[in-house]
Design goal:
single chain, alpha/beta, Arc Repressor Mutant, subunit A, D-Maltodextrin-Binding Protein, domain 2, about 25% strand
Length: about 300
């Protein structure tokens, strides 16, 4: 069994196809297929169920994926520790992030990391809140940006993202400096399904509001476009609403509502030197920048 065989198997299992895995690994598809077949031959049983255009894990494959991730994590950690002894932070960090954070926060954080540790490589996988928690728990990513507290995760604060009422510019509430959630009670409401809907509904419930949900939408850009068309109003975190049309305005909620984003990893996980360096630099960047996400309510 070789490390390259294990890495090929993990990539296929995570990507769900040999084609996607070959692109991730920058290898030919036949080469990835041969590596996985060789591993299955050594183990004496199939790890994958192959169907047209996709693969799934056998029961043995599910167990092998857990062990395989541990093997490559240890191999990476050994190389990184040798570099660490030479005073170099190197290696790869697989970071799970939500699209709004990837667009508005990560460029600044990664630029800071690049200046401090140019030998570090970061691979970003975008997902929604529930996916990110699951990825961190299962070890699919080394670190994940999450909005929820989870007992199975260690969490380092990253930033605080305020929620806003999202309104057409010609709406009667758009002229107010802030919006009481009770003023939204009778409005047709567009509810996010990107993972923070629990926080939105909680903020409304605290004001005694059961929203008149007309639409449930996952993508932030779709919510903004629907508000722009006058189909309803919404409540969104500020980071998700930064690329709104000029005819859509944000108004702070009163009382204030927010989500607290953190960098999370599984409690049982032994952090690699690369992850430790990432967390250290993220803490320094957060302290310098301030923990609140800056979004102008206009």
């Amino acid at each position: 069994m070789t490390e390259s065989q294990v890495r090929a198997f993990i990539a296929v299992a995570e990507c769900g196809s040999f084609g996607e895995a070959s692109r991730r690994l920058h290898l030919s598809q036949p080469g990835v297929s041969r590596a996985v077949q060789s591993l299955e031959g050594e183990l004496g049983a199939p790890l994958l169920v192959r169907t047209r255009g996709a693969v799934s894990l056998t029961p043995l494959g599910e167990r092998a994926l857990v062990r395989g991730r541990a093997i490559v994590a240890e191999a990476d950690a050994m190389r990184q520790e040798l570099d660490e002894q030479r005073g170099i932070a190197s290696g790869r960090v697989r970071l799970g992030s939500m699209p709004s954070v990837s667009a508005a926060v990560l460029p600044g954080l990664l630029a800071h990391l690049e200046r401090r540790h140019p030998a570090l490589t970061v691979t970003v996988l975008d997902g929604h809140d529930d996916e990110l928690v699951a990825w961190a728990r299962d070890g699919m990513v080394d670190l994940a940006v999450v909005a929820a507290d989870d007992a199975a995760l260690e969490q380092q604060p990253l930033l605080v993202d305020e929620f806003f009422a999202v309104l057409p510019a010609d709406h009667a509430l758009a002229g107010r400096r802030s919006v009481d959630p009770r003023a939204l009670a009778d409005e047709p409401f567009i509810l996010t399904q990107a993972g923070c809907e629990r926080l939105v509904l909680s903020a409304l419930a605290a004001a005694g509001v059961a929203p008149n949900v007309r639409y449930q939408v996952t993508e932030a850009s779709s919510i903004l476009a629907m508000v722009d068309e006058g189909l309803g109003v919404s409540i969104m975190p500020g980071l998700a609403a930064q690329d709104r049309p000029s005819s859509v305005v944000l108004r702070p909620l009163r009382p204030r509502a927010e989500r607290r984003l953190s960098l999370a990893y599984a409690q049982r996980q032994a952090l690699s030197p690369a992850c430790r360096a990432f967390l250290t630099e993220a803490a320094a960047w957060t302290a310098r920048r301030g923990r609140r996400a800056a979004v102008r309510a206009v």
